[in-house]
């Protein structure tokens, strides 16, 4: 292809390429949309896109005989006329990304793009993928697939997010190939000199994002596809599930959590609760959902029900009757409803492409919400069809769009779940107004984070799968899906060896307590509650789940950061430390939020492990208090009950007392767990954690600052926003590696010395020094307006 001519637009240029034409639109000064189309075609925007109205940044266009150059204050788009190709440069003139000589276009109707690379470039993201963190050298496929007991080499799994981050010369960029057909990414596997991506159909549409920080790329990508909404706090608690729980089991297991003082917030009802797997019904294994609601309320548990898209073909079933009457089903090529075999037997599938079908599906959730259901778990929504081609619908099944046009399954398959999740999310808005939705999904497309948390499907109870959770979650986080998790202990038991041993479950619960979505879920043919493996593992489970609950203020604030900037909650080390090349391939450690580094033991029989401490900061062993310089690898001894955790120096970690469930106790005293070398700060966000009132301004933001100044330490707070009636009456500043002070005072108010921590907790203000642990506790009234000086 070659550029025949061009025309400047209000936000870019339109290029005449002969048979085809291209649009290069600048959405911001650092993001461009590229579309190559047959002449006269409209540009493509998938349902994954959340924002389309960008305005136009300031830019200039220059042309010479060989090039057309578009320049903003941070990005240059250099277009070669013949052959047509695009080069992106930063404001200093450094090449960020460049088309290969093979360029871009269509081959047999398939859109493709070839890009230059070199041996130093690394690739991250791609949503949910098996294998390691860095995807250089991988041949990646995207086609939502019910990949039961997948392995580290499985190509197609449950979610499709065709977005990745390139990291070259310590600078990051992002590429989002917005195409809903089956897509393929060869990331320098074929050659060290280039990578390429293509789809089996559709239009050539991609978005280029300049960083140069990874965090900038993720922020901009989630501007484009949407950021997560703040979840209800209970959904951040521990959750328990099994394929095989009946109604009495749900109550019995919930009661056991309370009796054993293992914190938990939610129980899950799998497909067993339905009447012969009919959606929105209750069956004989759950004979009295009203009693279930009362029992769960008495135990202070929420419960979540599964939902599948397949609707049983049954003339006496109201959901089937309604959908048939209104012509709501996906069709065969001949216009008849497509019938596939899933759990209910022969089933039809809603055409979620149509708005009125989504609206109908949203309203149908009333049957579940009326019985006290707090969350919806969307499963089988790849969509899976037993025995179907590729375990799904035929490619030529038909969806009718709102405008009456017909779309084939080969185009809609990858967004089926996305549209179902949108309908489910709206089900909360319709039936439970002002209550924050909690939707969990197995399948997804780019942008699904707006509607649902994602779990990584039917994993297996073995060590490979425990190891794989870390890069899977990390890459999903880099792909906008901040609310992500895995089945703790492993779901599937495809062989007799795939059963969690006490050791495997202990190591997995340690990791699972430190991922965004924390749920123990397993299949009917084994036992896997935290107490199923003996007292030692039960105690380990209690220890780490309790620690998660202590850290809920920290975790909730990390979700707030995700809602504001797209920042992952579980982050690969490279996200924070992209200037340290030793983090580029590290896929067995991660940051849990901004301050805590988790280095789990994920190998059978191991009682120690090597831990890399990223350069540029100091690190503190959470358990021993030992300090380390960054930029080195150490060996950490870790018996079965020890999860290696390291704190980034100069951090404040907000925490609280342990609760058995969220909301059990009011947060009256906020603990500010502080690791101070020079200066530490934290912006603490607070709202009611359950309703949508925060979207109308009902929240508080308090900035904390702790600073070492010569021989004394100063603490101050700044209440930036006060629009929510907080229960917090005091803060306990907990200073590690401290010295006993001579005095603590705020202005003229001297804080008294307590003889024990228990005594201090009973006081409105004061301090206590634990000499053996070298920890200083200072109790500060929440309304303290003066600096607190510790001399």
UniProtKB/TrEMBL annotation:
<dbReference type="Pfam" id="PF13802">
    <property type="entry name" value="Gal_mutarotas_2"/>
</dbReference>
<dbReference type="InterPro" id="IPR025887">
    <property type="entry name" value="Glyco_hydro_31_N_dom"/>
</dbReference>
<protein>
    <submittedName>
        <fullName>Alpha-glucosidase</fullName>
    </submittedName>
</protein>
<keyword id="KW-0326">Glycosidase</keyword>
<dbReference type="InterPro" id="IPR030458">
    <property type="entry name" value="Glyco_hydro_31_AS"/>
</dbReference>
<feature type="domain" description="Glycoside hydrolase family 31 N-terminal">
    <location>
        <begin position="24"/>
        <end position="185"/>
    </location>
</feature>
<dbReference type="InterPro" id="IPR017853">
    <property type="entry name" value="GH"/>
</dbReference>
<dbReference type="GO" id="GO:0004553">
    <property type="term" value="F:hydrolase activity, hydrolyzing O-glycosyl compounds"/>
</dbReference>
<dbReference type="InterPro" id="IPR013780">
    <property type="entry name" value="Glyco_hydro_b"/>
</dbReference>
<dbReference type="Pfam" id="PF01055">
    <property type="entry name" value="Glyco_hydro_31_2nd"/>
</dbReference>
<dbReference type="InterPro" id="IPR011013">
    <property type="entry name" value="Gal_mutarotase_sf_dom"/>
</dbReference>
<dbReference type="GO" id="GO:0030246">
    <property type="term" value="F:carbohydrate binding"/>
</dbReference>
<dbReference type="GO" id="GO:0005975">
    <property type="term" value="P:carbohydrate metabolic process"/>
</dbReference>
<feature type="domain" description="DUF5110">
    <location>
        <begin position="669"/>
        <end position="737"/>
    </location>
</feature>
<dbReference type="Pfam" id="PF17137">
    <property type="entry name" value="DUF5110"/>
</dbReference>
<dbReference type="InterPro" id="IPR000322">
    <property type="entry name" value="Glyco_hydro_31_TIM"/>
</dbReference>
<dbReference type="InterPro" id="IPR048395">
    <property type="entry name" value="Glyco_hydro_31_C"/>
</dbReference>
<feature type="domain" description="Glycosyl hydrolase family 31 C-terminal">
    <location>
        <begin position="566"/>
        <end position="653"/>
    </location>
</feature>
<feature type="domain" description="Glycoside hydrolase family 31 TIM barrel">
    <location>
        <begin position="230"/>
        <end position="557"/>
    </location>
</feature>
<comment type="similarity">
    <text>Belongs to the glycosyl hydrolase 31 family.</text>
</comment>
<dbReference type="Pfam" id="PF21365">
    <property type="entry name" value="Glyco_hydro_31_3rd"/>
</dbReference>
<keyword id="KW-0378">Hydrolase</keyword>
<dbReference type="InterPro" id="IPR033403">
    <property type="entry name" value="DUF5110"/>
</dbReference>
């Amino acid at each position: 292809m070659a550029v025949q001519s061009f025309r400047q637009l209000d936000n870019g240029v339109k290029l005449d390429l002969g048979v085809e034409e291209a649009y290069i639109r600048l959405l911001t000064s650092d993001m461009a949309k590229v579309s190559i189309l047959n002449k006269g075609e409209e540009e493509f925007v998938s349902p994954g896109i959340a924002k389309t109205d960008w305005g136009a940044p300031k830019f200039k266009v220059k042309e010479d005989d060989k090039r057309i150059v578009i320049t903003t204050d941070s990005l240059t788009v250099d277009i070669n006329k013949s052959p047509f190709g695009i080069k992106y440069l930063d404001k200093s003139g450094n090449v960020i990304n460049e088309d290969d000589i093979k360029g871009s276009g269509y081959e047999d109707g398939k859109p493709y793009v070839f890009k230059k690379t070199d041996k130093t470039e690394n690739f991250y993201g791609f949503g949910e993928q098996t294998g390691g963190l860095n995807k250089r050298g991988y041949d990646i496929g995207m086609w939502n697939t019910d990949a039961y007991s997948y392995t580290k080499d499985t190509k197609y799994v449950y979610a499709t997010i065709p977005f990745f981050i390139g990291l070259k010369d310590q600078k990051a960029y992002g590429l989002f190939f917005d195409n809903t057909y089956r897509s393929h990414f060869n990331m320098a596997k074929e050659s060290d000199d280039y990578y390429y991506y293509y789809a089996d159909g559709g239009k050539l549409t991609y978005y280029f994002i300049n960083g140069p920080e990874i965090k900038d790329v993720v922020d901009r990508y989630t501007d484009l596809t949407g950021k997560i909404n703040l979840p209800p706090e209970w959904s951040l608690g521990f959750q328990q599930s099994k394929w095989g729980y009946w109604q009495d089991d749900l109550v019995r297991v919930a009661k056991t959590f309370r009796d054993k003082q293992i914190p938990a917030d939610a129980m899950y009802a799998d497909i067993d609760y339905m009447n012969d797997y009919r959606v929105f019904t209750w069956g004989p294994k759950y004979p009295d959902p009203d009693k279930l609601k009362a029992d769960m309320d008495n135990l202070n548990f929420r419960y979540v029900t599964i939902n599948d898209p397949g609707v049983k073909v049954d003339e006496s079933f109201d959901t089937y009757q309604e959908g048939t009457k209104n012509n709501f089903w996906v069709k065969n090529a001949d216009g008849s409803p497509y019938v596939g075999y899933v759990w209910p037997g022969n089933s039809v599938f809603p055409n979620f492409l149509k708005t009125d079908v989504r609206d109908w599906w949203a309203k149908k959730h009333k049957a579940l919400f009326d019985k006290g259901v707090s969350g919806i778990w969307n499963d089988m929504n790849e969509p899976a069809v037993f025995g179907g081609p590729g375990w799904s619908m035929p490619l030529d099944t038909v969806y009718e769009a709102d405008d009456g046009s017909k779309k084939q399954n080969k185009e809609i398959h990858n967004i089926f779940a996305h549209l179902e999740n949108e309908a489910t999310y709206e089900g909360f808005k319709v039936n439970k107004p002002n209550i924050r939705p909690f939707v969990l999904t197995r399948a997804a497309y780019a942008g699904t984070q707006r509607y649902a948390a994602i779990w990584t499907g039917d994993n297996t109870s073995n060590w490979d799968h425990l190891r794989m959770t870390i890069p899977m979650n990390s890459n999903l986080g880099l792909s906008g899906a901040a609310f992500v998790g895995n089945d703790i202990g492993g779901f599937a038991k495809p062989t007799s060896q795939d059963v969690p041993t006490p050791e495997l479950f202990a190591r997995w619960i340690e990791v699972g307590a430190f991922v965004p979505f924390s749920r123990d879920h397993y299949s009917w043919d084994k036992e896997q509650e935290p107490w199923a493996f003996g007292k030692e593992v039960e105690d380990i489970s209690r220890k780490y789940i309790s620690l998660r609950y202590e850290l809920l203020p920290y975790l909730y604030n990390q979700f707030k950061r995700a809602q504001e900037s797209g920042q992952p909650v579980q982050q690969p080390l490279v996200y924070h430390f992209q200037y340290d090349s030793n983090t580029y391939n590290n896929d067995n450690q991660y940051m849990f939020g901004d301050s805590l580094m988790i280095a789990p033991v994920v190998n059978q029989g191991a009682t120690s492990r090597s831990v890399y401490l990223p350069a540029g900061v100091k690190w503190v062993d959470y358990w021993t208090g030992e300090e380390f310089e960054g930029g080195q690898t150490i060996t950490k001894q870790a018996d079965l009950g020890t999860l290696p955790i390291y704190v980034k120096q100069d951090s404040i970690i907000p925490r609280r007392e342990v609760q058995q469930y969220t909301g059990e106790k009011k947060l009256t005293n906020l603990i500010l767990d502080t690791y101070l070398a020079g200066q530490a700060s934290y912006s603490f966000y607070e709202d009611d954690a359950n309703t949508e009132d925060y979207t109308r301004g009902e929240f508080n933001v308090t900035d904390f600052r702790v600073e070492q100044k010569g021989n004394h330490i100063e603490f101050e707070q700044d209440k930036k926003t006060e629009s929510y009636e907080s229960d917090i009456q005091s803060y306990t500043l907990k200073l590690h590696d401290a010295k006993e002070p001579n005095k603590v005072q705020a202005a003229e108010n001297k804080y008294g010395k307590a003889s024990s921590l228990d005594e201090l907790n009973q006081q409105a203000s004061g301090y206590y020094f634990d000499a053996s642990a070298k920890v200083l506790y200072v109790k500060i009234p929440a309304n303290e307006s003066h600096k607190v000086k510790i001399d």
